[in-house]
Amino acid sequence: THTLSLSSRSKDTNKQIKMVAAAADVAAVVRTYSTATANFEIRRLTKDQVRDVLRANARREEWNPGESDWESFYEADPAGFFGSFPVGAGAADPPIAHVSAIKYSGDFGFVGFYFCDPDHRHQGVAKPLFMYGLEYLGDCRTIGLDGVQAQVRNYAKCGFSTVWNHVRFAANLARPPLAEAEHARVQPATEMPFEAIEALDAQFFPSPRPAFLRSWLRQTALSRSLALVAPESNTVQAFGVVRVSDSGFRIGPLVAHTLADAELMFRELVATAHELAGETHTVNISIDTPEVNAESQKLVAKWGMEKVAIFERMFRGPPPTHALPFAGASCELG
Fold first, then answer.
1. Which of 34, 270, 295, 300 has the fewest beta carbons closer than 10 A?
2. Per-residue pLDDT for 24 more than 80?
3. Could you count the other beta carbons within 10 Å of the beta carbon of residue 67?
4. 159 alpha-carbon distance from chain centroid
């Protein structure tokens, strides 16, 4: 994902980011480059920087991240996070720009977390970093990203084409009633065989992603992953994750073959958000849906959710042909 809103960097924010990054070691320099005004080096970001710097910028740019999303992002590809730093910058200095380039397999990679400090935009700082991310993913047959519409033309120049829109919906939802018979079919996903969840996920994502998925299902005490089990065969028919975020709670992924199964899971996930929040009134729920999945649009419409943002899912290389989920896990990692 990229910027949802622009804001100038304050001195206080700079100071805060430097403080949280102070413990990080200076990561390996992978490339140097120059702009008209300064020299920069691209460094592979440390785990501490992924946690602190990327999370701080995601919040400032109103990407509404989950509280512990960064951990799963890092597990997906620890070598795939990069930042641009002025030459000579120390361990406590935040990157001027950053990007993630997640190599899921030789067939598929995904670019996200593309950010440049507002004071350094339109100065040639960020593009070399973005291009390095693409180079890192160079052996991937297909590369995807979710871009804000203001950046689509720039991505098109790099060979990306829009295939569908991801629409973020949000609403304050009351705790729904749960039917006892249906509720009995819903189990913690972490108690299901991981291979069953992974096999279902693989039907709705372009590439296997076991490291990411294992971590995503077990984020923290502030998230829950649920699975819908068929009553006779005991097979996993659907699964979903709800986790606490800056604005309330986010649901994703939500994977199901039918609208009925997806709605049952959505109802259970909203009820779970209420349990996590400890509230009896409403909780704010947001969800990112593929607009071309008509059934997903029926789901959010039934719950009275409102459109709050649109991202364009773009691909360079052959577009994937997998089935589309009711909700993706994250616009940052696909």
1. 34
2. no
3. 17
4. 22
